[in-house]
Structure formats: C-alpha cells, structure tokens
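User: Please predict structures.

Assistant: First:
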Amino acid sequence: MTTHAETGSPMPARTTPLMASYQELHRYAPGQEAARGQRFNAFLADVLRWGGLQDVVSDQRGLDGRDETDVAFMLGYTPYIVEAKWERHPIEISPRSKINGRLDGRPPGVRPVLVSMSGFTSTVLNFADYYADVVLLDRTHVEAMVSGLISAETLFYRHLAVTSRRGGSYVPLADLLGNGRQEPSPSLVRFPAQGIDGFPAIAEPGVTATHVLTAGAGWTAGEIDGLTHTDDGRLLWTTMDGVLGVHPATGRTAWTAAPTLCKGPALTTPGGDTLVLAETAVLRLTGEQATLLGGGLQGPGQLMPGRDGSAWVFASQGPRTAQGAGGHTLTRLGDTLADSTSYDVVFQGRVNQAVLARSGALFLAGGGWDVTTRQEDGWRCPRDRWSESVPLTPQASLAVGEHTVLLAGRTGQGGIEQALVAVDTRTHRSTPLLRLPNTTHITSLTADGEDAVHLLTDIRGNDPTPRPHLLHVTIPPSARP
C-alpha cells in the first residue's frame, strides 16, 4: 500500500471530533436534507454536551408520542428544548410557532430554542425584537461552539444576560463575545527619531532604525501579543483587552471590534476584513459582524498569510511523542469553518516561530535548529534537512522578499539584548541587521512596504507593566533576496 510518506503528499492532521463531524455534515448532497437533519440533532447534542451543559438528549419523544424534541438540556436548574433546522433558505415564522406551542404540555419555566443554520427571515428577526419567548441561534452561534471559541454553557449564560438587560431574543455573535474595552484607549507618544538614552538601536551598514512611538503614562491595555498593518496606514496591536488600532504618525489609538483575549498578530485580507486568533478558533471580523473560519486548533497558534492571498494558521503542541501526543499542524483557512483543511507538519523538534515564505516554503525556527519544507514535500522535515539556527531565541518572525525570513529575539549575549536578523530559507545563512541592548523582549514584526518593517518591542525592564516601544527599520535589498 502506498503511504503519504512515499508519495510526498501532505498528511491530513488530526482534528477535534466536533470539527470532523461538522465538516462531514457539510458533505451531504442536495436531496439528503432529511438524513442530515437527523444527524444534525445528534451532532448538536454532542456540541452542547461537550460545551458543559447537563442532561443533554436528542430526538426525545413526547408523552404518548404527541411530539418530538430535537434536543433537550439543562442550564443550571433551567430546562431548555431545542428545534434544530438546517435548510437552504432563512426560515419563516412557522417553526418558531411550532416550538413555542410545545410549551403548553410542559412544566412552567421550560425555555424554547430555535436553531437555524440558514438564518432567519427579517420577519422573524423583527418579531424577536419585541417577543423574547424563543431563543434564536444561527450558524455563527453553532460554529462558535464547534470551533472552541466559546463554550455552550458560556454562550447561553451570556445570551440570557444580554437579553435580560436589553430585551429581544436574538443576539449577534459579536455582541456575545465582547469587543474590547469600552474605556478610553491607551495613549502613545511620538519619540524623537534618534530615540532616548539607555535604549539604543545599533544598526548594521545599510540598515536604518528610527524610533517612532512609546507608551506615555502607565500602559492600561495589558500584555501585547501581536502587530500587523492595514491598508489605511494603521497598525493593529493585539492586546489582552482587545485589538487596538494605532496611527504611527500621530500615536492616536482606538479599539477595534475584536474581542478580548486574542493571541498573536491579526491578519488583514484584500477585502478589508480582519482575522484574529481567539481561543482555539480563527474569527473573521467584517465591520461589526463576526464569522468563524477555523477552529479546533491543537495548541498555541499563529496566523500567516499565504502567497496566493490565502490565510493559514500554524499550531503546535510540541514534538510528537511515541504515544502520539503533541505535534504540529498547518491549516489552510477557507471561506467558511467547514472549508478549512489541516495537515500534519512532521518535525521532531520544538517550534518557536513558523513562517510561510513568499515562495510557498514553510520555515520553522526551533530550539537550536531550523528547517524549510514545502507542501509538495508533504510538510515533512527529515533530520538531514535541519540546519543549525541563528544564535538567538526567536520571539517574532516575518516573511520578506521571495526567500527571506526576518527573525527577532533574544541573543546569547549577557544581560538583556535583542537582535533582528535576516535568514535565507534556501541556504539558512543569516545576515545581522540590528542590535537592541537593554530591550526586555521583542513583541512582533510587520511589513511597511517592500523595504521596511515596524518592530514592536518592550522596554519595561523589571517593571511588571508593559512599556511598548515601536521602531521603523529599513531592510537593504541585499538582505531580502
């Protein structure tokens, strides 16, 4: 039998049972709606059970067979019954009336839920603004639970909290996630281009480093975990409290619609959407709307752009053990949660940074070694391809040029010194670009055109409060082949 290793084709990665079942449900052909509906009831019960709800059952027959409840569960001491629909078009008012009518034969206090994977007509949504007796959930809510973005228990508690305060029975997913802090955004101040005493930026010949922004008064937005640029000239800083839009020319800031507790650099799309990594899911933000693109990620992840405008996410649980635990995965995101495809990246080492070069190669920088692999290689990294890493512990990375990756992180020098280097993904030769003595750590990198980057660092020293410091660095052509 021919194996994936023999053909070089990528190995499909293990995913969560919920993600696998959800993608299987999407494979049902037209005309199989009834079979899919039956499977959907059991699947939805699994989602709710996995999400912390109690006494979950599916396809529950009523007394004397007078009706059938698709799913039933308990939230605390409150019983819920669910009518689940997966149809081609938004549903009308009749299913809502159907489930509401079942309450006459059940004890007081039972709450009805109507789930529609195709959404609801405007008539149903307008009615729900004034009559809150039936909880309405659509595809976005189901996918949020499937992907691991939010547990079922948390979703229903938040839904109850929001509707109790403002009324109605339909709450968009974005309103259940929270969109950053509501207090004023933190302030940043412009730096003199030459910087400030005690925090030099020592550039190699042909490289220029300009100090741009730093935090003014005490930083209030928590730890910073990522940086990316937008087409309108802003920078997006991923913080514990949300994603902050920053104007580097002025230091003005404003919160975006992203939820709290996002991780790593956001990713902007050619259409103007923003992708963020939250919990084990990838969320697409279009204005105030939120949809799921990926989920069930195994371990900490990072978003990466592909060479054809695609979006990818690399996730790692450490090297794969002999017992099958751990491993690295690379997921290509599609237009919906069901379209994502995950692959195993076979590398028996720790990964500090992963980058998709513009050539399409995947570059991994780990504990003392780095390696380059490609999709036609099956994303495999045999030991004879490993190269000794540049002498730093990479904390941020960025693809520039066709075959070049920038790595930034702590050097092996004494004290606290960070460095920025360029690595050729073909030869693994490195070119030093910048040294940053007295810099506590590197936060993130993002491109500014073809020949420059913004480098976000932290200069807090022993202070527990972050002190972000933004630099602008030009990269000579010789360092980005």
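Second:
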Amino acid sequence: MNEDQIKGKAKDVGGKIQEKVGEAVGNRQAQREGVSNQAEGKVQEKVGDVKDIVKGNR
C-alpha cells in the first residue's frame, strides 16, 4: 500500500463514522460531510491504486 491508499482508506472510514454520528444525533450536515469524505477517500484510494499499477507493484 502506498500513502494515497492509506490516506484514502482513513478518510473513507472517517467519513463513515461521521455519517453515522450525524444520523444518530440528527445532524444532516454532518451526514452530508461524512458522505463527501467517503467519496474523497475512495477517489484518493483509486489514485493510489493507479500509482501502484504504473510502478508495476500490482
């Protein structure tokens, strides 16, 4: 795993937590931000995947 994959996964997981906390307390903005963070994290993870492919690590 490279740095982008690790940071992306962390952002995805953090976004899931933020979304669930927002649901639990009824905060729709926190839910939206959590979903947004998940999307950003998934994109960053894919960037890391592409970097690995280009470097021949996969």
